[in-house]
TrEMBL record:
The gene is cobQ. Residues 9-233 form the CobQ/CobB/MinD/ParA nucleotide binding domain. One of its GO terms (biological process) is cobalamin biosynthetic process. Keywords: Cobalamin biosynthesis, Glutamine amidotransferase. Catalyzes amidations at positions B, D, E, and G on adenosylcobyrinic A,C-diamide. NH(2) groups are provided by glutamine, and one molecule of ATP is hydrogenolyzed for each amidation. This is Cobyric acid synthase.
């Protein structure tokens, strides 16, 4: 595979088909083979983002894919990012920088103007790397959006890319989804579909084989791979808006140390951002992390995490209407541990002055921390490093809110900006995302939680490095695609591009 050159678009029959992880696995597999490979997603819709070394912002999935390639995250890999907020509007990030807010209809008009940005970035990547593996957005069959599409077949047409379709068989109906997605496209777009990958398969592949054989007869296209469902694959690279309530974060249930355990309830806010902050906690043996949205779960957990949000004021109102705000206040008054990150941290103050995200003016916070927050039009975007609890820590900041008039003790001593966050009673809060990925610091936090709630015998000295866990997850995905996808056939698709003799499916009314 060392001589392979070209690009391919990995599209989906729908959202959450597993495109992001398939692309990450392919990136790692190609990189292992000595191919200079890079990821690309023209347009992502996600509140799960990271800060690049040059101070830009991209979807976290593309950062993980870059990691799989052995590259630093770059705004080149995700030139357009949409961050949904309230009132059907989204914050637009172009080449890593804020570019205003738009509604759905406004963006349809604006998207055409972004096509040039996308084309320029992809062209530059193709000149620099042997292979560029592009990820589509949602379903490639959104024919209502085709005229202004810059992420799926619009991109494939503009850049002359072959397309591999991924479907999630765990949801059922995947063979019909592959056929129907292909058939609904116009003939020019159909000819770009080179083959299929079936994801998350459980069971005996020989039982599926008659279906894939018939699919090939009907469409003239091969199934390039059937990737099995993997219990051990848990890091969430998916840039979907939905983080399911009740979903357990971390290795399969029962994995890890035997003995006293800690329970962590991560509150699933409606407009949650950077939901992956809790993954570092979940990698520790003896720590069970679950997404929750009910007061009883907040009351019962050893630790509650109040995460970031794209709409702080709106989600604070939701917290109150659900009875979760009262549960959080009761925890604080009872001295039970709470960790609040970014928007969640801002909610705990006395007031929030917001003329930027919600434009509602000043609202009361939960009053658990003696600080005031004011939103500024200019977004803070930066990588951060400093000291917390006597340990070196790193993280990144993505927020409009600034803390003002705080009397609280800081949780972090930032090397550049000085005091950051707050440590008050059983509350720990910060604007830093990724703080808990600092290994020694994370374990000191868990030791503090265990001591605070009286869980004797809990030992937080696993020696686990979160970066090793992340690498193992990417390697697992690469192992899966290497074992279950015909990479030589895929390399041929990448090299030869769109085949001239690919058949089309003609619609007939009977």
């Amino acid at each position: 595979m060392r001589d392979v050159r070209g690009a391919v678009l990995v599209g989906g029959t729908g959202s959450d088909a597993g495109k992001s992880l398939i692309v990450a696995g392919l990136c790692r597999a190609f990189a292992r083979a000595g191919v200079r490979v890079a990821p690309f997603k023209a347009q992502n819709m996600s509140n799960n983002s990271v800060v690049t070394p040059d101070g830009g912002e991209i979807g976290r999935a593309q950062a993980l894919q870059a990691y799989a390639c052995g590259l630093e995250p770059s705004t080149r890999f995700n030139p357009v990012l949409l961050k949904p907020g309230g009132d059907r509007r989204s914050h637009v990030v172009v080449r890593g920088r804020p570019a205003g807010d738009v509604g759905a209809r406004d963006y349809l008009e604006r998207r055409s103007a972004l096509a040039g940005v996308v084309a320029d970035e992809l062209t530059a990547l193709r000149e620099e790397f042997d292979v560029v593996i592009c990820e589509g957005a949602g379903s490639v069959a959104e024919i209502n959006l085709r005229d202004t599409d810059i992420a799926n077949l619009g991109l494939a047409q503009a850049a002359d890319l072959p397309v591999v379709l991924v479907t999630d068989i765990d949801r059922g109906g995947s063979l019909a989804h592959l056929f129907g997605t292909t058939a609904i496209l116009d003939h020019a777009d159909q000819r770009r579909i080179a083959g299929y990958v079936i994801n998350k398969f459980r069971g005996d592949p020989t039982i599926l084989e008659p279906g894939t054989r018939r699919l090939a007869e009907l469409t003239g296209r091969p199934t390039l791979g059937v990737v099995p469902f993997a219990d051990g694959l848990w890091i969430d690279a998916e840039d979907s808006l939905a983080v399911p309530v009740g979903r357990r974060v971390g290795p399969p249930a029962g994995a890890g140390a035997v003995g006293p355990r800690l329970t962590v309830a991560a509150i699933r806010l409606p407009r949650i951002s950077n939901s992956t902050d809790v993954e570092a906690l979940a990698c520790e043996p003896g720590v069970d992390v679950t997404w929750v949205d009910d007061p009883a779960a907040v009351a019962a957990a050893d630790l509650v995490v109040l995460p970031g949000t794209r709409a702080t004021v709106a989600d604070l109102d939701w917290l109150r209407r659900r009875g979760l705000a009262d549960a959080v206040v009761a925890r604080a008054e009872a001295g039970r541990p709470i960790i609040a990150i970014c928007g969640g941290f801002q909610m705990l103050g006395r007031s929030i002055e917001d003329a930027v995200e919600s434009a509602v003016g000043t609202v009361d916070g939960l009053g658990l921390l003696d600080l005031r927050v004011r939103f500024d039009a200019e977004k803070v975007l930066r990588s951060a490093h400093g000291v917390a609890g006597g340990h070196r820590v790193t993280g990144y900041e993505i927020h409009h809110g600034r803390v003002e008039e705080s009397t609280e003790s800081p949780w972090v001593a930032d090397d550049v900006t000085g005091p950051e966050g707050a440590a008050c009673g059983a509350i720990r809060g910060t604007h830093w995302h990724g703080l808990l990925a600092s290994d020694d610091f994370r374990r000191s936090v868990l030791t503090w939680v265990a001591a605070t709630v009286g869980t004797s015998g809990f030992i937080a000295d696993s020696g686990i490095r979160f970066d090793d866990v992340r690498a193992a997850q990417v390697d697992l995905m690469a192992d899966l695609v290497t074992a279950h996808v015909d990479l030589e056939a895929l390399a041929e698709v990448v090299c030869t591009g769109v085949a001239a003799d690919v058949p089309v499916i003609t619609h007939r009314l009977v």
